[in-house]
Design a protein that fits this description.
- The chain is built from 8 helices and 21 strands.
- The protein is α+β, with helices and mostly antiparallel strands and about 375 residues long.
- It folds into 3 domains: about 150 residues, Probable tRNA modification gtpase trme, domain 1 (Gyrase A, domain 2, 2-Layer Sandwich); about 90 residues, Alpha-Beta Plaits; about 80 residues, Elongation Factor Tu (Ef-tu), domain 3, CATH 2.40.30.
- The strands form 4 sheets. Strands 11-12-13-14-10-4-15 form a 7-stranded mixed sheet.
- The longest helix is centred in the middle third of the chain and has 16 residues.
């Protein structure tokens, strides 16, 4: 994962000292000092795929958006419907500019009829906040919506893997699902009863926890939002229960195996969701920024497309490497890595549409060496069941 080395002073999460004490290698990323690895990327990927991994994702933003015009504003800003989202549920979608480029990708939760929680990426949080303020002023004269940034007042922890649900169930008390109706009426509510992209609240070690059944690894699990003064205690409870601390290096490999995008690589303000192959997260009723451009691309296609690539061996293609067909450059790698789960190299790349069909043989220029690659549709990995 590429590190951000431009910031003079990076922010630190409430878990910074805990990471250092655990021997994590810290790197600047998105304006924060974050752990890139503890024991090692391969071991941490294995922990998530086979048991349970624990990630500090407090660098992600927490924007609370409320008021009588909140849903209407979000319907203009997001490619996923806010007004159509029921209380207790969450949705993944994009924040696009007028050209259809992605300012950020996000998950947002409907907390009540007039309140939402939106999770922007770390480095994009200031740009998202400014964009929201501009749009609020333009469409609603600054009225009817209040936007509160609670990033520094809270922490965010992700627990991911086949044993993650068991661990959180065992630790969580007084659980209440956010939806009006629990998924399994008649049973004592528990986090395991949450369906994907729903949320609830409970307590771990007597501390209040917001629990969303979401994640960024391709595995089952939860993301837990807690008060900043409670993060260390809850992190320790989770590690004592068997969750293995993991860094951004493993997180990047896991999301790539699962075919999930990273802003600045598969997404940017000059790359649209349609080009990146994520049109399923773009609603068709229009009314949001960039809708006309995205509708046109959906109907008429795009000149470039995001594809998957598989390569033998361990010499991985990296972002920016050329993709060639018959010796001619036809695209560029967006992300690439060795996949310890699949024991081969994988990548996502933007290529000319004519070369985007699955099972097409291309080559990648890896530091002057031409490596044969085969196109494939992501995801590269899907969890059993």
């Amino acid at each position: 994962m590429a590190a951000d080395t431009t910031a003079a002073e990076n922010l630190r999460t409430a878990l910074y000292d805990t990471h250092v004490a655990l021997g994590a290698r810290m790197v600047p990323f998105g304006g924060w000092d974050m752990p890139v690895q503890y024991e090692g990327v391969i071991a941490e990927v294995a922990a998530v795929r086979n048991a349970a991994g624990l990630f500090d994702v407090s660098h992600m933003g927490r924007l609370h958006i409320g008021g009588p015009n909140a849903a209407a504003l979000l319907d203009i800003l997001l490619t996923g419907s806010a007004s159509g989202l029921r209380v207790g549920r969450a949705r993944y979608c994009f924040i696009c500019n007028e050209r259809g480029g992605v300012i950020d990708d996000t998950i947002f939760y409907r907390l009540s009829e007039d309140e939402f929680l939106l999770i922007p990426n770390a480095g994009n949080r200031p740009a998202v906040s400014l964009w929201f303020d501009r749009q609020l002023a333009q469409h609603f004269d600054g009225r009817g919506v209040h936007i509160t940034d609670r990033t520094m007042l809270t922490g965010l922890i992700a627990v991911q893997g086949p044993k993650a649900v068991e661990i959180v169930d065992r630790l969580c008390e007084d659980f209440t699902p956010g939806a009006r109706r629990a998924s399994n009426p008649g049973r004592t509510p528990a986090p395991s009863q949450l369906r994907p992209f729903t949320w609830g609240r409970g307590h771990i070690d007597g501390r209040r926890v917001f629990i969303g059944r979401t994640g960024y690894t391709g595995e089952d699990g939860f993301e837990l939002a807690v008060g900043s003064t409670d993060v260390v205690a809850i992190w320790n409870k989770l590690t004592d229960a068997g969750a293995v601390p993991c860094g951004l290096g493993a997180r990047d490999v896991l999301r790539l195996e699962a075919g999930l995008p990273l802003h600045g690589h598969e997404l940017s303000d000059t790359i649209t969701p349609i080009e990146a192959g994520f049109g399923r997260f773009v609603r068709r009723d229009g009314g949001y920024n960039g809708a006309d451009v995205l509708d046109h691309q959906r109907v008429y296609g795009t000149e470039r497309r995001l594809i998957g690539l598989t390569l033998p061996g361990r010499s991985a293609p990296r972002a920016g490497y050329d993709v060639l067909a018959d010796g001619e450059v036809v695209g560029t790698v967006a992300s690439g890595s060795y996949s310890p789960t699949l024991e081969q190299c994988i990548a996502m790349a933007f290529v000319d549409a004519a070369h985007a069909e699955p099972d097409t043989v291309l080559t990648v220029d890896i530091r002057g060496r031409r490596a044969e690659a085969t196109t494939a549709d992501p995801p590269f990995y899907q969890r059993p069941g």
